[in-house]
Amino acid sequence: MPEPESKNSIKQSTRPQTGSSLFHRKTILILIITAVLSLITIIGITIISIYIKKAETLINKTTTTTDASTTVNEPKFNKWKQNAITVAGGNEQGKKSNQLDDPTGIFIDKNKNIFIADFNNHRIVEWKYNAKEGQIIAGGNDAGNRMDQLHYSTDVIVDQQNHSIIIADRNNRRVIQWLNQKQQILIDNIDCFGLAIDKNGFLYVSDWLKNEVRRWKMGEYNEGIVMAGGNGKGNQLNQLNFPGFICVDEDQSVYVSDNNNHRVMKWRRDAKEGIIVAGGNDEGGNLNQLYYPEGVIVDDLGQIYVADAMNDRIMRWYEEKKEGEIVVGGNGYGNQSNQLFDPMGLSFDNEENLYVADSGNDRIQKFEIIL
Q: Domain of 104: which CATH number?
């Protein structure tokens, strides 16, 4: 661009000359063109910026929608703190009110009170929420077959409809009910081990000698109905080998810790055989194996939790998966807060905290859920 005229030359003549006029016209034209181009550039940048922002907003909305959809559709995979709190026992093995001796089955009521089958003490203990010691609510009068005695009770459940306590009194071969300090035999001549009650009030009992699980309607204790097994001892899909702990889901499917087969079986209502939902690959410590499974519970999503006793861990299995995952324990047997020793019974409270009857350590461990 040519240099503009100096102030001195402008003063020298007040009449514009032809060359000077052309120069000014060119200058003005260039300035106009530059201004137009600048305006077009600014408008273009503005438009591009608007489209970029719209695209970003659209992407963000899509991502948010996708994430929200994923969150809604995916099941909630709970996790628990790996260091447990001892909520009952843990004061060495014994029969004092603050001690336990090989606890097996446990039940947590809606108030977080813990009911414990205190196996070697032949008693059922209720441990109130946050209490330092328990109260004997059944047995505790040495081993025996009197109505006020128990003999190696393995499991306990609470019928919250009438607040009665139902007990698997194993060595007395009976299932008994304690209601308001009064006892009655519900089922006799049964080699009982595990107990469960469904939403309709039916009572389920595992018979470890007959290798079956039967169901009774409350108040009608005749022969009961076989719900799992009943085809002799074995490892076929229609057989069991020492069924122990059991649980029942909303569809009245029965889950059985098939102890000597190192597997958990699921028997749908009226099925002629079960399906393997955990283990079933011989005994062992791999993620696709169990080693004498004990307590079993199922959550609302159908996820199966198993006390893998000889592996000193609690595992979670999904019905269609080939292997499980360790949720707590699995750090070798011991008495540290992140260890278990021969875990037996399992239970959740109403906040989904996980409770384990840590039988080898004579204590009940509470693993708090991570929110």
A: 2.120.10.30
